[in-house]
Amino acid sequence: MDESHLLAVVNARHLVDDLQTIRRGWESKITARRNSAVHRVADLLIKHPVINAQLVSDQLHIAIGNVYRYLDPLVEARIIVELTDQGRNRAWRSPEVLSALDAFAERAGRRALFA
After folding, report:
1. DSSP states along 104-115
2. Class of CATH domain 3-109
3. Closest Cα partner for 47 from 33, 37, 58, 59?
4. Model confidence pLDDT, tens digit, residues 16-40
5. Residue 114: which pLDDT band, with cuts at 50, 70 and 90?
6. CA 76 – CA 20 distance, rounded (Å)
7. Backbone phi, then psi, for 19, in 5-degree steps?
8. 5 Cβ partners below 8 Å, 6+ apart?
9. 3-state secondary structure (DSSP) of residue 74
């Protein structure tokens, strides 16, 4: 395995560690019961850091009318922030996860130029 492959593996492991740390950190911020779907939505944010109600409904098999009750605690805990200012077609993002992904991309972009 050449150096670039090793660096890619190290970078990927770093991303996984970052995402696991973020997710563990959310546990102290989430006040919902352990068996609440709020925790499942938090897990989903690791895979989908930008979400809307339809995505949550489709991915977690939660009735669309119930999704907001699971998003609100995440907003209150500042785990997600709303992207939209409208009542319809609302979307949220997880700044921590997006920052981790940006850092991953930045590290991946640091390549030496060979002559």
Report:
1. HHHHHH------
2. mainly alpha
3. 59
4. 999 999 999 999 999 999 999 999 9
5. very low
6. 21
7. -65, -40
8. none
9. helix
Domain locations in the chain as residue ranges: 3-109
Q: Which two tokens stand for residue 25?
A: 């950190």
Long-range contacts of 2-9, Cβ-Cβ distance < 8 Å, separation of 24 or more: 4/111, 8/108
Q: Which two tokens stand for residue 71?
A: 């998003």
Structure token pair of residue 101: 């992904």
**What residue type is 60 in one-letter code?**
L
Length of the chain: 115
pLDDT in tens, 57-113: 999 999 999 999 999 999 999 999 999 877 788 999 999 999 999 999 998 885 544
